[in-house]
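Changelog excerpt: complex records now keep ligands as SMILES alongside chain sequences, and the structure block spans every component. Example after the change:
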Amino acid sequence: MEASSPPTLSRLAREDFIGSSDPALRDESAERGRAKLLDYVELYRLWERQQWLTQELDFTQDRVDWHERIDPEERFQRMYGLSAFFIGEQRVTDELGPIMRAAPTEDQRIFLSTQIADEARHVRFFDRFYSEVGVFEAGDGVADRLRQTEEHLTPSFKQLFDEMLSRRVDRLAIEPEDTECLVEAITLYHMIIEGVLALTGQHFIIDYNEREGTLPGFVEGFTNVARDEHRHIAFGVRFLTQKANEDPKYREAIQRTMAEAIPVTEGVLEPPWDEEQDIFGVNREETHAFAAQCLSRRLKVIGLAA
Ligand SMILES: [Fe+2]
Ligand SMILES: [Fe+2]
């Protein structure tokens, strides 16, 4: 039987998100810092249940919306927001291998291996969207589309991914037993890049498209991406909670990395145009407030915020 008001895709997915126990989604318990976190095997099982196919998405209406319903100025702004995701997914796919290998337990490594597959799928999702919707005039293969997308990156983005994250991952590739470096890398990767940047962008981009009634294929795929990200963040919160309780030097590593990354992250969230102009229908204060609230809920669970 059909319900009188069918649930929207994003609401269904949001309910499903709870499955990952990401503290940012559990308002009450996370505010009190008592979220029940899934263990690594439970997170793996959740991954098996939450599979999806990029090849099943239908971008026919998205192509019409992009070229006929969205004006050139808005197209440019949307492309700016989406480019950071497309490249971001490519960067995190390429950087996760050494982090996975450096994780100390088999259960952690198995979960992180599933995450590598997820990040690769996210790159394919964006590549299919860019090519089938025709975001660029021409583009021959994923490498060419990524190269064209690179032109829209800001210095803050490059600093966060290509300097701060890469430096730690390079170190882990040659010194996998450097657990302090692993804690720093997971703080950057799971707490900052996924927890602050990705989820904030996803939240506002999905909401905006649903309000405007645009890009239905994209919204369906991006909702799946966001569900995956909550699972990844749940891994990061569990790992960092354990490490923070294990030794004060790891607590300091988390705090040090956050202090270094937060100003750069704020730069990544700033679009390079007029300050008064909204992006995806929200102003800068709303974006920053949302990002800060998600972060502080997770920090409470880790035991690093009052
Ligand atoms: Fe991703
Ligand atoms: Fe992720």
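Residues 89, 92, 119, 122, 225, 229 surround fe (ii) ion (ligand 1) (CB under 6 Å). The CA atoms of residues 169 and 302 lie 23 Å apart.
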